[in-house]
Input
Amino acid sequence: MIRGLYTSGWSMMANNKKMDVIANNLANASTAGFKKDGVVFEGFPDVLARRLNDTRSTLNRDGRLGNMQLSHDIGTVYTDFTNGTLIKTDSKMDAAISGSRNAFFTVLLPDEQGNAIEMYTRDGSFSVDNNGVLVTKEGFPVSGVNGLIVLKSEDFSINDDGTIVQDGQIVGKLRIKQFQSSDVLRKYGMNLYFAPEEAEEEVFTGTVRQGFLEQSNVDVVREMVDMISVMRAYEANQKMIQTQDAMLDKAVNEVGALR
Output
């Protein structure tokens, strides 16, 4: 009976964690370049169940009842790097990567010591700060191949390979990192990713499209369906706990009181 309470309780906590992931996906459904997260459930390791102090059976003297699984929990939260739909904005400050799901714009973030560290994003909604530096909408500098990209104005063009031309002259080139597998990247926050040391790079094979933005790859309808399923599973486990609690109450206060 107590095992049933633990099983339902763990299932409620697992569904609560999945609900958090779904809620985050829905909250970023309109965030440019956002990549949705998914959840993989895993069961607790099987345990061998056996009868204790009961070896009277001649057919099963060791008391083994077989293997059983107590419950399940969130095993992995993964990121789906499927490309989002490109929408045309006609803004020269917007850029999107097309033709490669493993390529990212490089952004520079200061660490605790003030040193610049590389982060990566698919959100190409850029702007120019007061110093003429090309930055993200959060104000982080966009890295170029040869350092920061400094512009005279917001009137410039971006070639397919990321080269930036202004007044007929090349003023920089977007530093685009393409990895052999984007699955090694981890979310940092603010729609940014960081790459561990084992991440392997390769030559950029996509194209940069100015005047476009990549939409989030969140399917709102699919997420809403998953949310309803999680709510129903949570409520079912909640009712199971209430039922088992009532049975325990009867076992202790009524059956146990019989003489």
